[in-house]
Design brief:
The chain is an alpha+beta fold and 160 residues long. It contains 1 helix and 8 strands. The chain has a domain of 106 residues: Immunoglobulin-like (Sandwich). The strands form 2 sheets. Strands 3, 4, 6, 7 and 8 form a 5-stranded antiparallel beta sheet that branches. A 3-stranded antiparallel beta sheet has the order 1-2-5, with no helix packed on it.
C-alpha cells in the first residue's frame, strides 16, 4: 500500500510541474507577441513626437511674373524641438484654378527661429503642364531608422 501512495504522490507532483511549465510557455509566447507589437509602434511614435515639436511655415513667397513656374518661398521655423534636426521640408505648390499641384523637396535643417529661402524652378505636374501656383503648403519631414521619409501631417499654407 505504501507503494501505491508514493505513486499517487508522484503523479500529483508531475501534474503540478507540467502545469507550471505550461504557464511559463504561455507567458513566454504572450510576451514575445506583445514585445513585437510594442517595438513596431515605437518608431512611429518617435516620428509623431518629433512632428509635434517642430513647426515650420512659409512666411513669404513670390513667383516670377514672366515665368510663373519659378517661385521663391521663405520658410521660418518657430520655437520648439530645439535639439531636433530636420531632414528637410516638402513644399506643395498648387494652382487653385486648375487644381494641379507639384511637390518640391528642400533638404537640410532649418535652425530654430531661423529662415530659409527655397527657390523652386520648373514647377510642372505629372502631365508636364506648367503650373501657375497660387498657394504653397509646407511640411517638415524626418527620416526613420530605415531611411524612409516620414512627412509630418500638419501643412502650413501661404497664398501668393
Amino acid at each position: 500500500m505504501s507503494r501505491l501512495r508514493s505513486k499517487k504522490a508522484m503523479s500529483g507532483i508531475v501534474t503540478v510541474v507540467l502545469l507550471v511549465v505550461l504557464v511559463l510557455v504561455a507567458v513566454a509566447i504572450f510576451w514575445g507577441v506583445l514585445r513585437n507589437l510594442l517595438e513596431e509602434d515605437t518608431g512611429q511614435i518617435e516620428i509623431t513626437q518629433k512632428c509635434l515639436n517642430v513647426n515650420v511655415r512659409p512666411t513669404s513667397g513670390s513667383c516670377d511674373a514672366l515665368s510663373t513656374d519659378n517661385c521663391n518661398v521663405t520658410i521660418t521655423r518657430d520655437a520648439g524641438g530645439d535639439e531636433l534636426l530636420l531632414e528637410g521640408v516638402k513644399l506643395i505648390f498648387t494652382d487653385t484654378v486648375t487644381g494641379k499641384s507639384n511637390v518640391t523637396t528642400a533638404k537640410g535643417n532649418i535652425a530654430v527661429l531661423g529662415t530659409k529661402t527655397v527657390p523652386s524652378v520648373g514647377l510642372v505636374d505629372s502631365s508636364s503642364a506648367v503650373l501657375s501656383p497660387t498657394k504653397v503648403e509646407v511640411s517638415a519631414y524626418f527620416l526613420d531608422d530605415s531611411g524612409a521619409e516620414n512627412i509630418c501631417p500638419g501643412k502650413a499654407p501661404y497664398t501668393f
